[in-house]
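<context>
A single protein, sequence plus fold
<entry> Chain with its tokenised backbone below
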Amino acid sequence: MSTAAIAGKIAEVFPRLKARIAGFFYLIIIVGGIFAEVFVRGKLVVAGDPAATAHNIMAHESLYRWGFAVEAFYCACVIPVTVIFYDLFKVVNKSLAAIEALLGLTGNAVESVSLLAFFAPLVLLGGGRYLSAFSAEQLQSAAYVSLKLFEHGFAICLAFFGFDCLLAGYLIIRSTFFPRVIGVLLAFEGLCYLINSYANFLAPQFAERFFPVLAASAIAEISLCLWLLVMGVNEQRWKEQASLATQV
């Protein structure tokens, strides 16, 4: 096989390879998010009870630390996914793909900074001598407040992610190399994220009632992740769209 033929073969499979790499990192993000949210915070944080929450965190300190470490790791995984998505979707609309990438990276930065508030209870409840001026109740309350601040930071992150999903859904619908139904589902999930985040800001009680709808809409991300892992992209259609983009 000639060098040119080998190069052409590599170019043909590269979009699918990139998509599968993105799917692998996306799977880490989904699994890591479920672990941190459901099996760490969901298990250890007792709503409205700082003392019980503090007790749970210190009684299961290793689990709590793993939750922090996993969330920090999957935040790092967002970066390659964002870069690959931009590379795949710039053939559809380069400007919108760039905006989508910026939204994703901004939301990820907000979540990464908010992780400081997630880690803070370990410092506040760790029994350091520099904390001796505070009572146990004060430290427990401060730890609980830090977790509430993390939740609000996470809601801000998800607001950016909602816009990100809307744009990504639109780009998928406009593309010819992904199933359009995934784009529709992703755009709907983005709308749900926006409703949930702004409800947390403006009407928390409604946010609690709306959360089951948001949880159900996660089928969009699961579908996209599985499609990326199993199918990648339609290489021929991606190449055709890339060729058209270079002619514009």
Q: What stands out?
A: The mean pLDDT is 92.
